[in-house]
Amino acid sequence: MDIIKRNIENKIENWLFKGKIIIVYGARQVGKTTLCKAIMEKYKGDAVYFNCEVIQIKQALEIQDPVELKKFLGDSKLIILDEAQSVRNIGLSLKLLIDTYSDMQIIATGSSSFDLSNKISEPLTGRSIEFTLYPFSISELQQVYKPHELKGQINTFLRFGMYPEVVKSGQENGRIFLENIASKYLYKDVLEFEEVKRSDLLVSLLQLLALQLGNEVSYHEVSKHLKCDPATVRRYIDILEKAFVIFRLKPFSRNLRNEIGKKNKIYFYDLGIRNSLIGRYEAIEKRDDVGALWENFCIIERLKRNQLKDTYGNKFFWRTHDGYEVDYIEEYDGILHGYEFKWNSKRNIRTKRFLEEYKESSVKSVNIDNYYDFIIE
Hints:
alpha/beta, Rossmann fold, Arc Repressor Mutant, subunit A, seven-stranded mixed β-sheet, globular
């Protein structure tokens, strides 16, 4: 497969040498290193790469002295610090460098925003710009597939996800990759977080969330099932979200008596990871969870699309206690734009109740025949 250029590459390059530390977040194995090295190629001879998980590099970058830091990094204009969350007090080191050597451009990557952002948020206030790298998007795959070819690959994406290595290596090798990343890399940053001690609880929680895909999640009910307190469930979910494993969608409620207003829905950044957690890779036509997979797929692809287009509205779902619902809502300037995700394009959507309650809103159906407009245009 040809090299696929990531959508945020141009966005990052637009911020180079403008006096900002550039931070690139993203899960492990999602392509952060490949992205940074692609940018480095344009500055051959004037760019250098450091893997901050190497002990000698980590220790050198923990020295709080700009002269010593500069001596270690060298004279290159572009510096890549990969997995920078590994460095103690990295925020202070980066602040010293940017304040002292303003012509130096540093790109720091991190696979755990709970760790790296905590270390840089205060020292780098006003001195950094942040980006998130997701698994491949449909938009990026247009570089190697035509629209009808992409449509033919949707079943595979729903089963194996869109990690770069999976897309490039095919189903059998992709499955091996997913099992490997799920067992060795997925929890690494989470388990290294000082307050997370129970790997068994973490795995059980993720498996439970995988099985509840597309449904509201009650922290109290989850805690009862896992035999732990709700505060622990809430904290673990927060950490997993900041490690780019899962993300939450909040309910939309304007305090109508019948609206559900507390429970979140939880989705996975990659469906291959979700399926690997519960060992389900069977063909789509044999599955009973295709509706939830389709919903997750459409929402995460929409998030990738919105990042590319710099479109950032409020995001919700809507559901009433008597069963009326809208899967996904975006709010812009007080106007609600709803979407219902239907794998079967012949299934009708029920919109009357929502449209009666919110007069200026709209609801559209997103199915396999029209999804392209939702996640690309």
